[in-house]
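Entry, Tuesday afternoon. Goal for today is a structural model of the target with fe (ii) ion bound, before we commit to ordering more compound. Inputs were pasted exactly as handed over by J.K., no edits. I checked the ligand SMILES twice against the vendor sheet because last time a stereocentre got dropped in transcription.
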Amino acid sequence: MNTPGRPKNSHPLDAMCHALDQSYEELSFLHRLNDKMTLRHNKNDFFPWLCRELAGVLQVEIVLALRSALKSKGLAELIASEGSAQPLQGIIDLIWSRTVKESQRTGICLLIDAIKPGPARFVWPGGLRNILAAPIGPCQQPSAILVAVNKRSCNEFDAFDARLLQSVTADAAVYLENLNLYRDMHELLLGSLGALTRSIDAKDPYTHGHSERVAIIARWLAQKMNLNSEEIETIYLTGLLHDIGKIGVREAVLGKPGRLEHHEFDEIRRHPRIGADILGGIKQMAAVTPGVLSHHERFDGSGYPQGLSGRNIPLTGRTVQLADSFDAMISNRTYRCALPPDAALCEIRRFAGTQFDPDIADLLLTCDMNSLKDELRCVTQRVNVTPGTAVIMQN
Ligand SMILES: [Fe+2]
């Protein structure tokens, strides 16, 4: 390994300037990295972004991010890269095993392959001059490995490079651990709310699976609107939880066959507000609550509970309201049989601009629904539907 960043035969002042320059680059990059490692960023962008940044800061030809093989038969698989990874595809397992072995041997979680012979000197297949690699997570069982290959200008990796990669992998390990914990907590929360929703749907044999189907239709519509992944997730959750307030409505009213009395209808009309109150107490559901509150508003202002109209109704509410109505039309109910999909679409067209947002209705009317039909059938088959109670997309 070279003396940190010191070009050969240079003046000491030049070397100091070079070292300062490298330190500045390193600090600047670590600042960007800390900003990137927040839960609000899309985790799918993380490794491609990291490879791109590292290739620039370390001044190398190629950076790879590897993880333990999940899909392939080998030891490791590529999850992101910068530069041409093609020549390295055949030696990914070799890089993985040598890095893990060397990290275990030295205990410093780092493999540096210098040009000069040394204890960490390996022979690599053609084209590879030098490699710097560090595991993310425990040396014995890393969750991923970052690999920098071929210093530009035929330099060797130096102590700056090694220290930088170690800082990055240490930070990334904490970030990925936090991400996993966050994902587990999020899934636990969704699992609990989903169970609650299913138990409400189960109060009425005619609405089994309704909330999940509404969520799927709403997400399908959101995808057609080209929203970002966070907005699509919010609309999906709003669909899943839209009727959660029915927990505060008596079962005798929810499942009553035939027409409802006025006071019973008033009781039903309270469920958007009850749902919003329930979710209002959960910080993570802040984006979902407005859609739950407004999923019975109508575009012309004749809905409830607030009588909002047009774009004053949150997009989540307008989307779920359409999805809710469409699923209700294509499912059997106590008071009527399911409409065939074409007849349901005619109803959507008839009420676009009055009951429904015309732009969202247009998405349902003009897009190919084959993928949506498949997803809805899966829900119907999964839930324990009383024979003859749900007729989804039979055509
Ligand atoms: Fe509702």
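Residues 1-6, 384-392 have pLDDT under 50 and may be disordered.
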